[in-house]
């Protein structure tokens, strides 16, 4: 992702969104020191909206502002990530339960479409990016189906940290991980269609905790390629 100049209208909000996306898309890497002046120049704004945006990002835990040192992209520890996944698991299990209670067929239809997207072969970097986006949407659809704005907001805050940590995952992980991931997603959708809440929450929990263990292990081992 390239940083490009912004319009003056709602500069702080736009700066916040641009910087948040740059962090999540790995334009800025975990632990990287942010050059505030350079960012302001690239976005075509003054330092004021940059500083306001950084304060907001710091509140979310996406950046770490260190007095007399600088501002850095958050660098999660394995324990931080494990705790984040555990909370995400609780939220997503709750969301899945509420989604099953509501029983909206449009939700399961959309999840079936995403399952087809996720089953497509990955041959290029663009394919992998598309897969990541479909995977994120799969889980967002479930969370959104709960019909709770607060739950969705909490989920998105946690998910941002998980996206940052995924920079540590290497491309060699993809082949074996995808087959297992697809089976887990299919089990989740089948249980949701059947409105079988015990099976649904068990499938969601197993899926998220398996992903947690794999990513925590990668994070503990260090960045991919190190």
Describe this protein's structure.
With 226 residues, the protein is mainly α. It has two domains: 9-73, Orthogonal Bundle (Arc Repressor Mutant, subunit A), CATH 1.10.10.10; 78-221, GntR ligand-binding domain-like (Four Helix Bundle (Hemerythrin (Met), subunit A), Up-down Bundle). It is 69% helix and 4% strand. It has nine helices and three strands. A three-stranded antiparallel beta sheet has the order 1-3-2. The radius of gyration is 19 Å and the shape is elongated. It starts with 10 loop residues before the first helix and ends in a 5-residue tail after the last helix.
What is the count of DSSP helices, taking H or I runs of 4+ residues?
9
CATH superfamily of the largest domain: GntR ligand-binding domain-like
CATH domain fold name of the largest domain: Four Helix Bundle (Hemerythrin (Met), subunit A)
Helix/strand-derived category reads mainly alpha
Low-confidence stretches: none
Mean pLDDT: 87
What's the CATH first level of the largest domain? Mainly Alpha
- The Cα radius of gyration reads 19 Å
Helix fraction bin: 55-70%
Number of strands: 3
Give the SSE string. Answer: HEHHEEHHHHHH
């Amino acid at each position: 992702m390239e940083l490009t100049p912004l319009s003056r209208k709602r500069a702080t909000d736009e700066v916040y969104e641009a910087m948040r996306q740059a962090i999540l898309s790995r334009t800025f890497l975990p632990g990287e020191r942010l050059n505030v002046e350079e960012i302001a120049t690239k976005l075509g704004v003054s330092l004021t909206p940059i500083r306001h945006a950084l304060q907001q990002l710091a509140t979310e835990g996406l950046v770490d502002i260190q007095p007399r040192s600088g501002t850095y992209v958050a660098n999660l520890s394995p324990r931080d990530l494990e705790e984040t996944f555990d909370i995400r698991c609780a939220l997503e299990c709750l969301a899945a339960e509420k989604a099953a209670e509501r029983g909206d067929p449009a939700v399961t239809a959309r999840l079936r479409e995403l399952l087809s997207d996720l089953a497509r072969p990955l041959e290029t970097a663009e394919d992998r990016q598309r897969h990541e986006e479909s995977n994120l949407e799969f889980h967002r659809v479930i969370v959104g189906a709960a019909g709770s704005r607060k739950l969705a907001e909490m989920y998105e805050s946690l998910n941002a940290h998980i996206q940052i940590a995924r920079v540590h995952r290497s491309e060699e992980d993809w082949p074996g991980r995808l087959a297992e991931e697809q089976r887990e997603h299919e089990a989740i959708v089948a249980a949701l269609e059947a409105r079988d809440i015990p099976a649904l929450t068990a499938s969601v929990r197993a899926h998220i905790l398996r992903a947690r263990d794999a990513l925590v292990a990668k994070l503990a081992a260090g960045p991919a390629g190190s």
